[in-house]
């Protein structure tokens, strides 16, 4: 009697699991739609390459910027002082080498002294180049047109190399990423057209496949497909999602 009741409980549990809707799937079996996400082609976390204190961040979260614009500036007074010192040492070493070269023409300086002067000039040039490189890292400029997604540091904060400061994205260059069944490769090609309905906007946009992934996932039997929306839509943002419908 107990065995019969236990079997009945297992049967009811299995029936309930079979009837429960499956969530999180990227494919809608009813109409063949594919879940898709909008992602930026260019998304970068900016960080410092030198240990320094932030003196200015002239952009705000959500704000836009242009390529080449300064996004972060550091207090580099000590690095600039080191550069001036290195440049002065280079000038002195260069003058000494110039004099020794003139004396060498009249055999008034030994080979050892001339070699040492050449070595000091090269060393001073290397020090000046290194100091100049450090000063060149006293500001971070935008590598592309975009917007600020997140600020992780503040003005007057001291940061070490590698510490995140700004997350930036190019919101104008978006791509659609989706996983499609690998059996679709028989008909799905670069240039194949589809429509994407964006959940956040409640609107649909025409799009096309730009490229396909390089390998098939053997477990899910799916492959990455990347598409682009035709034209430009200013209200689209990275992170939005929706459904792709193929004709």
Q: Gist?
A:
Residues 1-18 form the signal peptide. The protein is α+β, with helices and mostly antiparallel strands.
Class computed from helices, strands and strand pairing: alpha+beta
Share of helix, binned: 25-40%
Biggest beta sheet summary: 6 strands, antiparallel, barrel
Helix-strand pattern, N to C? HEEEEEEHHEEEEEEEEE
Strand order of the largest sheet: 2-11-14-13-12-15
Shape annotation: elongated
Separation, N- and C-terminal Cα atoms: 56 Å
Low-confidence stretches: 1-24
The radius of gyration computed from the alpha-carbon positions, rounded to a whole number of angstroms, is: 31 Å
Mean pLDDT comes to: 87
Question: In percent terms, what proportion of residues is strand?
Answer: 35-45%
Count of DSSP-assigned helices: 3
According to DSSP, the number of beta strands is 15
Signal peptide: 1-18
Protein name: Efflux RND transporter periplasmic adaptor subunit
InterPro entries: RND_pump_MFP (IPR006143)
Keywords: Signal
């Amino acid at each position: 009697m107990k065995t019969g009741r236990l079997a009945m409980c297992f049967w009811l549990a299995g029936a309930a699991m079979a009837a429960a809707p499956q969530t999180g799937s990227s494919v809608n079996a009813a109409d063949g739609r594919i879940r898709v996400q909008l992602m930026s082609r260019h998304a970068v976390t900016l960080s410092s390459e030198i240990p320094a204190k932030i003196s200015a961040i002239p952009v705000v979260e959500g704000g836009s910027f242009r390529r080449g614009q300064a996004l972060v500036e550091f207090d580099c007074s000590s690095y600039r002082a080191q550069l001036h010192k290195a440049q002065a040492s280079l000038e002195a070493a260069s003058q000494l080498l110039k004099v020794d070269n003139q004396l060498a023409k009249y055999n008034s300086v030994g080979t050892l002294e001339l070699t040492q002067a050449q070595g000091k000039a090269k060393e001073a040039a290397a020090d000046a180049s290194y100091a100049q490189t450090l000063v060149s890292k006293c500001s971070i400029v935008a590598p592309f047109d975009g917007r600020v997604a997140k600020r992780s540091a503040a003005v007057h904060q001291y940061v070490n190399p590698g510490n995140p400061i700004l997350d930036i994205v190019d919101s104008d260059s978006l791509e659609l990423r989706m996983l499609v069944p690998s059996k679709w490769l028989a008909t799905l090609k670069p240039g194949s057209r589809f429509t994407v309905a964006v959940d956040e906007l409640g609107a649909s946009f025409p799009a096309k496949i730009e490229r396909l992934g390089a390998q098939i996932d053997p477990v899910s039997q799916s492959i990455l497909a990347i598409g682009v929306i035709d034209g430009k839509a200013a209200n689209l943002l990275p992170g939005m999602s929706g459904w792709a419908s193929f004709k």
